[in-house]
Amino acid sequence: MEDLIFNIQRYCLHDGPGIRTVLFLKGCHLQCRWCSNPESQRFTRELIHKEATCIKCGTCVAKCPQQVFEIREGKLDITRQKCDFCGICVRECSTTSLEISGENPDFDKIMEIILQDKSYYDMSGGGVTLSGGEALAHRAFCRKILTLLKTENIHTAVETSGYTDTQTLIEMLPLIDLFLFDLKHISAEAHLRGTGKDNQLILDNLTTVVSAGANIIIRYTLIPGFNSQPEALSGIADLMKNLNLNEIDILPYHRLGAEKYKNSGRNYELAALLPPEHETMQEVKDYFIKRGIKRVTLY
């Protein structure tokens, strides 16, 4: 399995404390139906076509040696299986409507980008967050970049679903200052329905991290009709109380990633699902506070 990065975002404020740089790694063993970064799911490179900016000029059709593209009835048809990611179409596209998602990490370049903002991290209590996809699916990359960050005395956080090899998790513990632990649902059946996997490994790994004394913030994306019901909220609160976890970030489901599904040749199953109302989010926050969770943050 190849280690691939598909984005580096600077000046982030919602991915751990302070001002942060977030590294997004490609590939995840879960296939969440609501995922806002569908290009993060596969462990391989992908050809992205931004239909909204494409002018159907035919340059990609003429230049592609693999005959990936064809214009039919004013529409650009793409046979993505033929693409060998040579990058010619990306370089030739005058509207930058084509891109390749996923590139091999250049650690010198990554650290150069990160260190540009070292003063901001120090001033704000920020640092670097590894996200994805599932960052911890990339054991060698995580070990190397986290070690480099520790050498520079930079705070490290990892956003994880917890669906990862337990030994990898244990190995990374000394290098991670904060876990942003995404919980989807307490029910194994519902978790399987929503993500394609049950949650036993996730719950076991959460217990492992808690037992090791790690700093953990639970992250919970509220998805109407999936995990917004009282029994789902109660299950998360019960788990947190049992594990003595006192911090949770509650995020609303949104549809900002819907266009990405089209751009990457996927079908977005939840196109008709509306985000939760602000009042609903506030009610959920109040519920967790009443259950004794000490720090509840809405995003």
Classify the beta-strand content into a percent band: 15-25%
Structural class, please? alpha/beta
What is the fold named in CATH at topology level of the largest domain? TIM Barrel
- Strand order of the biggest β-sheet: 1-2-7-8-9-10-11-12
CATH class of the largest domain: Alpha Beta
What assembly state would you assign to the polypeptide chains in this entry? single chain
Mean pLDDT: 97
Largest sheet: 8 strands, mixed
Residue share in helix: 25-40%
Number of strands: 12
Total number of distinct structural domains:
2
Structural summary, described in words:
InterPro entries: 4Fe4S_Fe-S-bd, 4Fe4S_Fe_S_CS, Aldolase_TIM, BssD/PflA/YjjW, Organic_radical-activating, Organic_radical_activase, Radical_activat_CS, rSAM. Keywords: 4Fe-4S, Iron, Iron-sulfur, Metal-binding, Oxidoreductase, S-adenosyl-L-methionine. This is Glycyl-radical enzyme activating protein family. It is a single chain. This protein is of the alpha/beta class. It has two domains: 235 residues, TIM Barrel, CATH 3.20.20; 54 residues, 2-Layer Sandwich (Alpha-Beta Plaits). Helix content is 33%, strand content 21%. The strands form three sheets. Strands 1-2-7-8-9-10-11-12 form an eight-stranded mixed β-sheet. The chain has a two-stranded antiparallel sheet with strand order 3-6. A two-stranded antiparallel ribbon has the order 4-5. The model has no long low-confidence stretch (mean pLDDT 97).
